[in-house]
Design brief:
Layout lengths: L2 H4 L2 H9 L5 H4 L11 H17 L1 H4 L9 H6 L3 H8 L6 E4 L6 H6 L5 E6 L2 H13 L5 E5 L2 H8 L5 E4 L2 E2 L13 E2 L2 H8 L5 E6 L5 H7 L3 E9 L2 E10 L7 E7 L4 E7 L14 E5 L1 H6 L2 H7 L3 E2 L7 E3 L7 E11 L2 H7 L4 E7 L5 H8 L2 E12 L5 E9 L2
Parallel strand pairs: 1-2, 1-4, 2-3, 4-7, 8-10, 16-17
Antiparallel strand pairs: 5-6, 7-9, 8-9, 10-11, 12-14, 12-15, 13-14, 15-18, 17-18
Length: 394
Amino acid sequence: MNIAALLNPQIQNYILEKNNSDVSKLAFQNNPFPEIDFKIVLNQIECRTKSKDKLPTWFTTKNIIYPSKISVEQTSSETTAKYKSELISGENLIDLSGGFGVDDYYFSKKINQVIHCEINADLSKIVAHNMEQLSVSNVICIEGDSRETLLNLNRKFDWIYVDPSRRNDLKGKVFMLKDCLPNVPDEQEFYYNFSDNILIKTAPILDITSGISELKNVKTIHIVAVENEVKELLWEIEKHYNDAISIKTINFNKEKIDGFEFKFNSEAFSKYSLPKKYLYEPNSAIMKSGGFTEIGNYYSLDKLHQHSHLYTSDDLIEFPGRVFEIDKIISYSKSDLKLYLENTKANITTRNFVDTVEIIRKKWKIKDGGNNYCFFTTDKNDNKIVLICTKINL
């Protein structure tokens, strides 16, 4: 990529002026800058637009250069990058899969020297340029293979950070770390030659139990969600650590930050009851964690059913998730559905239920929206029930 050409003030002004423009329509216009491929300029416009909410620091900084659209889509948000930076300390860190450098920007605020290792030459140059624009002087960009870079540097780091990429679009809901580049399970012992602490970022689709089975010395797993959407899993690895694994969930909302922590495979048992006055639905980070018994016990809540993952109480409490007051409990029967829900408007959620939301809406002509929240679920006696609720904003 010709960074110098893109930094032409006229091109930069054009990119700023066309923010939020429909790039597909701009592509049919004549290229106002014949000295550069117009597709490159259009990519800058599209990527900058995408960065507005995800990367506000980059969006508001002059002369930032963007890589391919997929690199911007796959990079950490500033919210998650800042969270990661709170997990590390020491003098130096090497990032084996540097990418667009958002994580390293935040690491650089917590650690004296950060090595950004990136095999893509263009991307490495882009990050080096952007760090200058962002007034960051303690990030060193090295182009090349991460394994070779470690061998060439031949030094100890306080932390190794790695974000392995999937080799291909694997089908199904579960993938293995061994299917990624770099293959961290195979490389883990090699990494210990250069650091005792490893922080791994993986996609939320990775199954936690399978990740634990592949990796050694897992100390803590962080499940990070933003606005109730799980964005990434973070795996803290410490050489020689063989104690219980901590699971930490965090959900960043505009109003508040919800966190919850428990020990993996703790010996705990749930209490069950029929629906009481209030209903609780854990946020997506807790749902991903599998800590269904732990969350209920911590907040002294009863579960509706082993597999429903909904909780209930007579007293209202603050809870990391959605909270509802139960207005009515009905059976999943033709007579009750026709009486209370047919041809109405409601927000529908299913938990451990025989029918999908789409089937329920179609069968009973229920439109989406309104103030009613309906949970189609199964109670502790294996009865199919519907909880008609009002949402409570705590």
